[in-house]
Amino acid sequence: MPRIAYFGPQGTFTEQAARALAHPDRDELVAADTVSAAVAAVRTGEADAACVPVENSVEGAVPATMDALATGEPVVAVAETVLPVRFSVLVRPGTRPAEIRTVTSHPHALAQVHDWLATHLPHAATVAATSTAAAAVAVRRGEYDAAVTAPVAVEHYPLDVLATNIADVADAATRFLLVRRPGSLPEPTGSDRTSIVAVTPDRVGALAEMLAELALRGINLTRIESRPTKERLGEYRFFLDLIGHVAEERVGDALAALRRRCLHVRFLGSYPTAERISTAVPAYAVDTEFRQAAEWLTAVRHGETG
Amino acid sequence: MPRIAYFGPQGTFTEQAARALAHPDRDELVAADTVSAAVAAVRTGEADAACVPVENSVEGAVPATMDALATGEPVVAVAETVLPVRFSVLVRPGTRPAEIRTVTSHPHALAQVHDWLATHLPHAATVAATSTAAAAVAVRRGEYDAAVTAPVAVEHYPLDVLATNIADVADAATRFLLVRRPGSLPEPTGSDRTSIVAVTPDRVGALAEMLAELALRGINLTRIESRPTKERLGEYRFFLDLIGHVAEERVGDALAALRRRCLHVRFLGSYPTAERISTAVPAYAVDTEFRQAAEWLTAVRHGETG
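Output (C-alpha cells, whole complex):
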C-alpha cells in the first residue's frame, strides 16, 4: 500500500490536502512532525510521497517547505491541490454557544477568524495551541470550550460542529504539493505548472536576464520568491513557478538556458494546475515552431538553403 | 514627545527593534495589537512612526506588513534595523532547571529553539502562547514554568534569565522598518536601500522588462516577492528592495521608467541599510554620467553637435 507522509498532526489542513491528493482506497496517510520530516520520509523510501503546504494567500510562502525542497536529495512535485482556508468551530457534544468561555487554536488560525469570533463569541478568551488539531484535543480533554480547526478534524475527534466554513478573508487559500522521488513525470495536460529553484551569480542583472530567457519564449510566471542562500553573501536562491510543462519545447528550451546561466538550477516538477488555466502560448513559441526551426537549422548546417 | 507605535505586546522582538530605532530620551513607544493597527496609528496621526517586522530569515516575509504598506494611505520607511533572532528562557526567581516541567512560547519561537529544549530541558512539555510576551505573563502567573522570549522581555516582567542568546539557527535574523507619513526623505548615505511595490500588467515578460529597467541602470535587487493582488486574476503585486537611494540619478531614472511601465508603483522609502554595504555602481550609471548625458542631450536638442 503506497504511503503518503504529510505535515501533521492528524486533523489539520495538510491532512485534508493529502486526502484530496491521495487515492482513497489505495493510499495510506502517515502524519509527520514537520515539513522536513515528511520530505525526509520520501527521500529515505519510508514513504512513497509527501504532501506539504507551499503557499498561503494570507500567510505567504512556507519557508520550511521551500528550504526542504531546495536542498538535500532531489524530490519532484507530481500534483498540486488548493484548499480554501475555511475553518470549523468544534465543541464537546451539547455545548451551547452561551457556555463558551475559551476558544483555542494555532495563532494563525485565531488571527484568520478574529472578526468572526468578535461577532459570534465576543465574550470568549482566545488561547494559543501548537496546531489546529492540538486545539481539538484540548477541547476533547475539557481544557477549553471550543477549537478552531480544519473541517477534517471532526472526523478524528468526537466533537460537534458549532459552525463551519468560516473565515474573515473569503478567498484565503493554501496550495499544497505532492512530492515523490524523481522518476517518470506526469503527462502534459495543457494546463501545467513547472516549479524550479535557481541560484544566480551575485551580479547586477542576473535575475533580469533569467526572466528574459523565460519571457522571450512566451513563458508566464505565477510566483517568484527570493531567499538568501546563506552560503555566500549576496547570493540568492529564486523559487519560480511558471506555466507550462518541461516536456513542452519552450519550457525545456528555457530551462536549458537557465542551466547555462545560473550557478545551480533544480527542477522541482511539472504537474497539472489545480484549477484549469488557459495557457495562451504565442505563435512563435508553440512546439511545432520549435521543431520546424530545429529542422530548418539542421538543413542549413547540411548546406541546404532552407 | 514623538510616539512610535510597534506591533506588540510589550516585551517582544518588535519592541526591541523599536527601541533600537527610537531616540532613547525623546520617543515614547506604544504597543499596537496588530501590524495593521500600528501602521493605521501613523496614518491617523495618532503615532508619528511605526516599527514593523518585514522579513525573517527563517519564517520568510511578513505578509501582514507587506499588505499594510501596499494599500491604504501611503507611508514610507525612513530606517531599518536587523535583529538576530536569539531568545532568552525566563523563569520565576529561584526556579531550578530540574523543576521545569512546562515551557511556553509562540509556536514559531518554540520551533526555533526546538533543539536547544531537547538538549537542555528534555523532560519539559511545550505549550503554545499567542506571543513571546504572553508566555512571560503566563510564567509570571505560575501557569507554566519557563517562557521562551525576546531578550527585552526580562525588562518588563520580574522573572529570572535561565539562559539567553539561544537559537537553533545561529544566523536567524529579522529585519524591521520604521515607517512615517510621507515628508522629507532621509539623506543618501552611500549605503541605502529603496523599497517599492509595483503592479504589472498581466502579460508575458512584464516582470522581466521591469527588472531589465533596473539592471540596465546598474541597480542590484536584494529582495523580490510576488503576491496576487486579489483584484484581478493574473495581476501580481511585486515587492522589490533595491540598493540605492531615490535621490540618486540611476534610481530615480529607473523608478520613473517603472512608473511608465507598471499599472501602479508605490514608493515605500529610501533609507540607510542596517549593515553598511558596498554599492559598486557601474561607471555608466554614476550620477555625473547621468548629468553629463542630460546636458549633452540638451545641447544636441539646441542644435549643438555635442
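The mean pLDDT of chain B is 92.
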